Batch of 2 targets.
Target 1
Amino acid sequence: MRILIIEDDAEAGAAMVRGLAEAGHETVHAADGALGLDAARLGGFDVMVVDRMMPNMDGLTAVETMRREGDQTPVLFLSALGEIEDRVTGLKAGGDDYLVKPYAFAELIARVEALSRRRETGAVATTLRVGELEMDLIGRSVHREGKAIDLQPREFQLLEFMMRHAGQSVTRTMLLEKVWNYHFDPQTNVIDVHVSRLRAKLDKGFNRPMLTTVRGAGYRLDG
Amino acid sequence: MGLPQLFRTTPFRLTLLFLALFAASAAAFLAYIYLTTAGEVTRLADRGVIMETRGLEAIYQAGGDAALLRRFAESVANDRPFLYLLTDSAGHRLGGSLAAAPVSDGAGPGPVWMHFMRSSRNPPDDAGPRRWAIGETTRLSGGETLIVATDVTYAETFVLRIVRAMWGAGALVVLLGLAGGLLVSRNVNRSVARLNTVVAAVRGGDLGARAPLGGSRDEFDELGAGLNDMLDRLERSITSIRHAGDAIAHDLRSPLTRLRARLELALLDVEAGRGDPKAALAQALGDADALLATFATVLAIARLEAAGATPKQASFDPSQLAADIAELYEPACEEHGLDFKAELGSGLSVRGDRDFLAQALANLLDNAVKYTPRGGAIMLRSRRRSSGEIEFSITDTGPGVCDQDRGRIVQRFVRLENSRNQPGAGLGLSLVAAVAKAHGGRLELDEGPGKVGEFGPGLRVALVLPRAA
């Protein structure tokens, strides 16, 4: 994947370049908003990671400009501003996701990969399929190898998110934000318990587990 | 304050504007009076002179100069208000009540203003005071010149008096207006200057400066009270932020020191070929994460306390919020071997910040799960109190908190002895208390259901929000 990093902090930028490269991605680093906008105009990026506050042109303005010019490349905002309103401002400016600094690399990589996938599945699908797992979004039913799996509404939402991001790590914070719409960090392992309940229903009676724990990152659903 | 400065003030300028308007309307009013008095005098005189001239012309046609002179005598005898002069073509006086032709102040045809000197002597001569008349000069068919005039000196004097009175009144209006303007400006300026002194003091860094209130409850008092209130709030916020800043600095110092020590020891170990650097690094990373989480929470608390009220407030059903949080925590409770129940009242409404309240409930449930031993129970409840207040409460069957510690555990970074081996920074309840306070509510801590076997007495924490207005 080709990723454009727009970050004025040289050290943070270099760390991101290295981390994403180790995860197998190709990166281009722009040192401020204006340079980033120039780079973005060349095109060919799958995801852009944009720091919100930068000299020359801040991230919000850069992304707003790109969107006005018709560039729909998914954008992950990075910011030290973590209040709900700050997130809303970022998403309104055209960001697709918002990650508050400081962050763990695993979180950054998971979110970048989630964004790239999002573009591929843009069409309105009525069924999702991951390997032998099939989800009917209209009938609200799930089958694995033709065997019906009975899920609670929240488990269904959780599985839908995991299926849309199959093959990628999704973090606990991502699940809490995208499935439950909360932006705080519970001290209790609430998400783990929800995931393990889902896993029990999904993998029970099958030899091969589909939903696995990724050490230090979160979870992954594989087909 | 000197006069020139006074002239530049808004009230004085307004006074001048009103003065100009008032002077203009007074001028229009006086002009009307002038026209209806002086104008009327002139008009009546004009008409009389014209009628008399026409009459005399007719008499001349019939009887010539002699008839005219007879008529002059008759008129004077009958005290008719006319003056006459008849001169021949060479300008010699033939007769009449005027000694000489008066000086015309305008050119005919028709009656014009004239003035002449007149005495009551007979035959009339040029001596005596100047008098005013309106008269018409007519050339007769025989070459003679006939002047018919009416003496308007009395009327004119009267009119002059009116005009003089008008000028006087105008001057009085302007003077009184100016004086009034100065007075008003001076008063307003004194009030504004009082407020400006406060603004200057605050700008100079004295946040304690307050405007003196006169107790007159006028708009300046109101403005002063508003200014004082604003400064009170500002001072409170700044003090609160300063305290929060001090607290952050103070409380992050020890974990930072710990982190530093751990890294230093790890370095020593690695240099000596002992120990596993990976484990030390992982531990340091964990420390850093905990530190950042603490920092974020302290900041959130400080913002809530400084704001005084939550930034965004919306009306929503508190039971729906509690149900959402219950749904999130129920599996975790079960996992920890706890019996979880939710009792949610219906038809409730509350105004507040949903995200902060969700986080507050999550913090309370985190605590309950953390401190209630396996086999215990947790109850989440939402209801309307008889006072109309909305209450979220979480009751557990854990060891509880003894009376004297209940006030303390709400404070930042306070952790009780039996919680030392549990993760956490001692900020959970502080955040909940800050959320409650920012909503105008409060946090209540009580004993739980009491001692039952090995459980209890438990803790009951209630987040009480004021009734929706």
Target 2
Amino acid sequence: MTDRAHLGPRHQQGREVDFVVVGSGAAGGVMARELARAGFSVVVMEQGPYLNRADFHHDDFEALVLGKYTGNPADRPHTHRLTPNEEAKKRDYLIYAKLVGGSSVHFAANYWRFRDIDFVEKTRKGAVAGTSFDDWPITYADLEPYYTRAEWEVGVSGQAGVNPNDAPRSRPYPMPPLPITGGGAVMEIGAKKLGWLAQPAPMAILSRPYRGRSACMNCGFCWGFGCEWGAKSSSLFSMIPDAVRTGRCEIRPNSYVHRIETNDSGRVTGVVYFDSRKRQQRQRAKAVVLSANGAESARLLLLSTSNRFPQGLANSSGLVGKNLMFNGGSVTGARFEHAVNAHKGAPVSRIVLEDYELPQSLGLAGGGGIDFRGGSGPLLWTMFNGPLDAPRWGMGLKKVLRDYYTRSLIALTHTSSLPVEANAIDLDPVLRDAWGVPAMRVTYKEHDNDVKLMKHMQERSVQLLEASGALETWRYPVSEDPGAGFHLLGTCRMGNDPSRSVVDKFHRAHDVRNLFLVDGSSFVTSGRGQPTLTIQALAFRAAENLIKAAKAGDV
Amino acid sequence: MEYDSSRRRFLAVLGSGATALWFADNLSTLGDVARHTDHGMAQPAQRRLEFFSAAEARVVDAIASRILPSDDGTPGAHEAGALYFIDRVSARHLPAEMRTQLRDGLATLQKDVASRHANARDFAALTKEQQDAVLRERETSPFFELARTLTLAGVLSSPKFGGNRNYVGWKLVGHDPSPTSQPPFGYYDRPAIRRQLLGDNRSDA
């Protein structure tokens, strides 16, 4: 097809635009839409392709094994080690989508707000040794209007006012919760027995037609997949089309930015990128917004060294890439007497937040939540989610396949991660990607507190499963090596003190006046496990302030 | 469950419930999605080998048949055409080291069988009991792990990759592949069961 209407106007590469936004995910989509709507010219650089509804199939092999969304790890390899004194080994460790819409295309769409405590936990609960645990420079009250905006602009289903401990809100959800799923119904049974609250889950999936988009059809292929109905409120279906509709925003897919350029006065002048044919190109801009995610944004800053910025751009604090947080959690399988059919409907319809804050007597920082859900399609479910001691082949395996798929589910817990300086993204000294650019090196090991927290939450989820009537449960082990990172947070933290943070409270780099870092990298603490709504609320707030500054000539 | 009627069911949903209004405005795109949903699962018409020799294919089919047998008279890996999935994925997607592992594993297996069963042409010619004994000896080997993974994938992946013929795998586990669904999805979320188990008469979504 030669039709490129979905990509917007073609901005000439030689010409300077107002803004380049690197990344088109949860944050990049919001930034592009808001800046373009305010009248600025914008180019969005996305390293992956533009896929749309007709490209999204119920195909777990293609999505999860062949990496349709996450890309080929052979092209973009990275390495991992647990601690800084080890040699990092090649590992497919960070999982994020590389396409227009970013990981908001394939995520499970849990849209929890943070609570007050998440912004001021250090002051309220105390410092934790061996961490860089700190308060945010903003409070929940500062962010509340933007949570509301995000919920209404992208389309979030949910029910306000059910849990008195939820953070106060200025407006209800724009639409009711999604239908209760098998997992949600089971959870309600256990919660009632224990006197806990199983509350309707806020989800970025439409329960009603909204702004020209379809409601959810309950096909069950959300977690790990793009939505063929456009009902999942990814940037691809919500923010990007709005941005393009302004006529001022170009989406440039298959464009891999590997350097941010600066001039002698220390200002950003644009980006250098590889196009789909691996030819090097430049896009000049008056300002650059980096929304490439908590791993890629840090890497890009570290790649953009110059005489003036020898340790990487915006890195006078030395904190770029440090304090990486993933959110922890645990997985426990369970089988029930009757059909749950957890593969139908949204991934999550009920959540338990009883442990959002823990009793002091446990001596643990942070907290978490629980949901019951199915897997990501029958293939992975069957390979990884059966009982640990199940027969692996023969008639025994056949019996397990027959008995478990419809009757079982997994209890996931989602927990806070403490920021630890040694947990970091930097550049691998040896490995390069398919474009010859230094690959990412990930150093990550769970803090002791967080391992204990995950184990505690796993036991709480088992308690809930048993109260729900589970016939058997099986715990997948929790360890200091999480095995993979999905939520990429904390690597360019926000703060008032330029020696202890990378961006200010409006996401402007302390060191570079026309560079803005807007994504999970700004997080000071991790929240309890579902960061995307907070990423978008921060983006709406950052955009509003950036627009004001740009109009006042202060960028 | 009628797996082959997904398109019919899908069209039946058009008239129903909360989304009718949206459907009225979106019939043209909906047609596209319906077509792609069918297309996305269509099995390749031709069944010819791309990677294995005929002799290798015979053995791969036999191994897959022991990993997921049809001894109980219901379809297993053989009936699902797992062989054709394994063959196609090996040719098109597996990294070189896994292809080598597969080929070398088959060669070693053949030697092993020949040394112990002089009259047998290959693994496929052994009795089921003999086959199981041979596999049991190597069930912790990387070759067996790869064969097991590929067999399961061949049974449970979208038919478009050549396996899961007639949705054999999905029927076995109880996976309903229809592109849309309506609550209640299972037993516990039925309104009557919820009322009974929760002991109240809430009526939320």
